[in-house]
Amino acid sequence: MDTTEIEDVCEFTLAEALEMEHLYRKRGKESQQQKFCEELATKFRQLFSAVKSKSLVADSNAATKQHAPINTSPIALKNLVALSKAWAAAERPKKPKGAERVAELSDLIFEALSSKDCAWYDVAAFLNFRVLYCGELEVRVRFCGFSHDQDEWVNVRRGLRERSIPLVPSECHKVKVGDHLLCYRANEDHALYSDAHAIKVERQLHDKDDCTCIFVVRFEYDNAEAELECSCICRRPS
User: Fold this and answer.
1) Which of 91, 125, 133, 150 could form a disulfide with 146 if both were Cys (CB 3.0 to 4.6 A apart)?
2) Start and end of every SAWADEE domain (predicted)?
3) Selecting from 3.40.50.150, 2.30.30.140, 2.60.120.10, 3.40.190.150, what CATH number does the domain 165-235 have?
4) With a threshold of 0.70, does the pTM exceed it?
């Protein structure tokens, strides 16, 4: 995809993506039917056009000419639902309506795996989606702090997850040997956040505001080991 094509892609926010997922969850068993899959795919294409033109496109065939063909399947839709499991857990006892619900969804944060350097970055927005012939869903993401020329297609199942939690000094005791972590690694060539596992923890007495413990981790990417401070570590949500 060249720069011109990227600029023409309508930005599709997380709140909008999860709002459309509500339609899928609301229809229940009916969502397993092919007709529903086709309707949902058409709805996505129309909303992409609506963001740009401020009105829905009545002819779905015209929208198809502007976007790559999309195959739909129940498997792909299940993957879409998996993208936002946190939504159901975060809902209030009494479901908010319309704008209130969208406002809540916008607070959800995800991180995505870049295929360029195998590092994780916060997601600023979801721009588009596509379904592969194998039934897996991919989303095009814009990373926080990066311009459109750094947008990437990311596999929802393998490369998209809820954002990691920065480790604070008062919670350093929560890190155990064997834990899956997201850790900061820097050298002359790069400064990245990569997946790692804790292999040793050297605990020290300290106050709640300044952790002096040393965490020895092994990075998944190249099996390199490093001694890190609390400020270089993020925990995975439980």
Assistant:
1) 150
2) 107-234
3) 2.30.30.140
4) no
